Amino acid sequence: MSIKQKQLMEYATQDLVAMVAEREGRSIQDAMGVVYHSRLHEKLRDVETGLYLEGSEYLYGLLMEERAAATSH
After folding, report:
1. How far is 46 from 20, CA to CA, in rounded Å?
2. Contact predicate 16/60, CB 8 Å
3. How far is it, in rounded angstroms, from Cα 38 to Cα 67?
4. How far is residue 1 CA from its own chain's centroid?
5. What residues have CB less than 8 Å from 63, skipping those under 6 apart?
6. pLDDT tens string for the chain (73 positions)?
7. What is the Cα gyration radius of the chain?
């Protein structure tokens, strides 16, 4: 994994944390828990998925879908 790929993954993660905190009225620490413990975050950190290249809104949508699916089971 290149340094650039790692940076893009970190930026995407930071954006997701900020979006969860802002849109859901959560603290940064709580939002970090939501993001870092998600399956999406695992996929985001995998170079092969290419998710780190996607936009923040798209990634947030995937995270919301994951969370909705988890609560429906």
Report:
1. 21
2. yes
3. 8
4. 19
5. 16, 20, 34, 35, 38, 40
6. 999 999 999 999 999 999 999 999 999 999 999 999 999 999 999 999 999 999 999 999 999 999 999 888 6
7. 12
The domain limits of the chain are 3-71
Report the 10 Å Cβ neighbour count for 67: 15
**Whole-model pTM?**
0.91
Q: Which amino acid is at 25?
A: G
